């Protein structure tokens, strides 16, 4: 029986709150806090009346002092950070100051450099160790479940893993000619950034979207997949012993890429303000205002996501292949928690990660990536909490 | 020796002013007038020192009284209207009030309906007749030279014309991924409007860009052409006796259409304001601010335009085909007059039309479309004034 402070009130937070309330044996009491308290109150109103007690609070997570104050008031056993990645460090600082465990779903990035790197958060290792508290980094789906999948494969099926291909497919259709699932700024940045994969001890850079394949996904069908960099590559390259190659692949439709390319061509994705009628306007911000609100996509989105890992290696001297994946249905997710699969697949693993720490299963002083823990209890919870996984020992491989 | 009042100071006006100054035997004195006098002064500065005397003036052509006042002051023999089509009627009213001949390059359209129709200007016929003055409508390239081409074919090569296909190709490349040659609002409206062609006594509507063919243009090569409505179809259908079918075709690249479609999809071409940070912003206006300034395209644009008419009919009881066209080089036009071919092909015919009236060749009381006059002296001037034409009696036909 524990208390969790949830920072954030967006789509993922909504899933986290629902799932906490579905597990009152673990989450006795939660506090939902964000910059806009009315959003927290709206969530509380939806879910009040169950066994889990719900509080709300206003907090500016950019300000460590405010987070410390709130932690002191509420007294949580863990802080579940589902706010913006820019706020990871201020919240970690507050956890250090108050001796409370910490969990997030995406690694810290400074506002100005747009670099996905763990170095800023790994720099907290010693301080968390000394404080005797746990920080679990990247407990969403990818990063998150993908790391658990790799650790599970390592533990049960391989003596040595040589190749990991993480495949992230979204077969959802929202019926608009163009819209983005979440913050379009992040979508656009992912796509316009160089690709990067890990091979033989170093990262290899590739031009944006220059490596494309087609993969046939269960529950979705054939999709174009593109090699991207994704943050879990950095930790998996260190934590999976003997690994030779790790790549991350994501589906994008030709239609989506065409829209993005055109918007880039005309300057609509730029974050440099232009002066329009005497006032500075950031084109990307104006585009956001024109596009459908990501929150409005939930009720309209049909189809499934399919995210998993295709793994190659050896067991008992024999080559072995293994594919472990989850399929999540957008409409079913929306029916259950009011958010579609993109938020669902991120929020549920955050709650499972918190459970692991609160139950003492993953309670260890320091700062950790998810694949550093025993995957078995997490894999068990995935099946119980709405993200059942499937496995195959004869998957189609990527050359 | 005559005096011309030129209303407008954009790309076409720049061509008109240059060409008037190249023909000081006809244009003894000109006055360049527009809302922004500094633009007129800049043009004057460029061209001062030749035989043609140049004045400038500030005028709001929306206000008939202001135009009347200016005509009284300057005392022109003709008003060359290369301002906005919204201003045709106020300028015609001023010509009526002062007894001065009138010429324009595009038909009047009310600001709110976006309909290309001659009815508003044709309604002035009786008043111009009674005033003893001439109004020449649509003396650009298309409308304009295309009508002269048809009249020329009719006069010299056909007993009866059955089919006219007007082909407007722009092979220009400005090197930007996307930009529009002139006001993007007009570009976008042309493309998103229904197509329309004239067949057997009536107009047939087609969905936007639904009829596409490929045509091999001299000087340009193979291009996609799309059936559009264009204003000269309305007058040619009445003025070419025995005509059974008239169509207008324009080239658009797949790249251009893709950009336009995407911008439409995300709402960037909308003229409905949205509220952004507390202020109303029209998305299309914001897009204009982002796109390269159409005026900046001139120096960068390479390649040619090719505009002409493919005509089918009978002569002496035998079927006959005829193709008459002009090719205009963007860079040569820019070198000569500081505007590329799109403006050049509109401005030169305006000056030739004015010559026809000022020389008394086309001086007739009333309101006329260009194909109603003897085409021969106009065709002769096209060759002299920089728009030489070519003809073929075995053109590739459009089915």
From TrEMBL, chains A, B:
Saccharopine dehydrogenase-like C-terminal domain segment(s): 140-387
Superkingdom of the source species: Bacteria
Short name of one Pfam family: Sacchrp_dh_C
Stretches assigned to the Saccharopine dehydrogenase NADP binding domain: 5-136
InterPro entries: NAD(P)-bd_dom_sf, Sacchrp_dh-like_C, Sacchrp_dh_NADP-bd
SUPFAM superfamilies: NAD(P)-binding Rossmann-fold domains (SSF51735)
Protein name (Swiss-Prot/TrEMBL): Saccharopine dehydrogenase (NAD+, L-lysine forming)
Organism: Acidaminobacter hydrogenoformans DSM 2784
